[in-house]
Fold:
Amino acid sequence: MSAFFLHLYQMKRIGVMTSGGDAPGMNACIRAVVRSAAFHNVEVVGIRRGFQGMIENEMSLLNVNEVGNIIQYGGTILKSARSKEFMTVEGRRKAYDNLVANNVEGIVCIGGNGTYTGAGVFYNEYGIPSVGAPGTIDNDLYGTDFTIGYDTAVNTALDAIDRIRDTADSHNRIFFIEVMGRDSGFIALNSGLAGGAEAILLPEIMNDYDDLIANFEDNTKRKKAFSIIVVAEGETNGHAFEIAEKFKARFSEFDIRVSVLGHIQRGGKPSANDRVLASTLGNAAVEQLLAGNTNVCVGVVNQEVKVTSYSDAISNRKSINPVLWNLSKILSY
Structure:
């Protein structure tokens, strides 16, 4: 008997949880996990509030009917939380005891680096198998071209940029628009490029602020009376308000405003791309778990499902697309 079917018949009940920051498409992933498991006659226990809910025994069976009308909703029906208690030996012991009491033999963990780290430690201590699905709007997880929620977040940011551009045009203003991306500039780069931003500031680019100053000092490069400057929140020169203040001190003649989009980027109905991606990865996570793989996460690379170890996903840094970065510079003229 193949390894796949051996583990398939041994594992009768798995858990699914969402952890860390919520992302549009998490519900679609939960739905795919439950229905894919049901296809293989495996029960699914929904673990509420991530690792903290595991510690507090917030678990219940999920059937296919309960996930029948959730694919179109943002957020997560299982809720999410960050758990300091799980970082302790005592907390992880409670979590393990509760999983055993609920007959949970493996877990699909939907989240980011912190989720993968916690799941890896948990396996090393108690041998609970897990497979991760990348759920984060930042798109900064190695091992997948796109993460669940990223496409929706970019489109949400783009919609806001388009609206702000209208008022910038009406008043000849310069707007600094801050988008999410604590350690990465994926949302900033794609929403800025799609929104026709005159400049994009990313944490990955060290001299982007100097380039911005040089661009505005050379009036021949400024053919518009208004400008949109998109700033990733993790930008090394500071947040949008700090950068705008420095910019205003140098160019006092400009009418400068700041808009921070914030958590609006996390919410809303997931895009078609995110629903398809989340469904694909939810199914793939179940298949990997039932095949006996653990301490791995699933992703899509070049339109194919790929498996990456937790350690590689956590330690490797995904780079922004240099072609898109260069294109943004060319089109800002």
About this structure: The chain has two domains: 3-149+270-315, 151-266. Confidence is low (pLDDT under 50) at residues 1-9. The first strand starts at residue 13 and ends at 18.
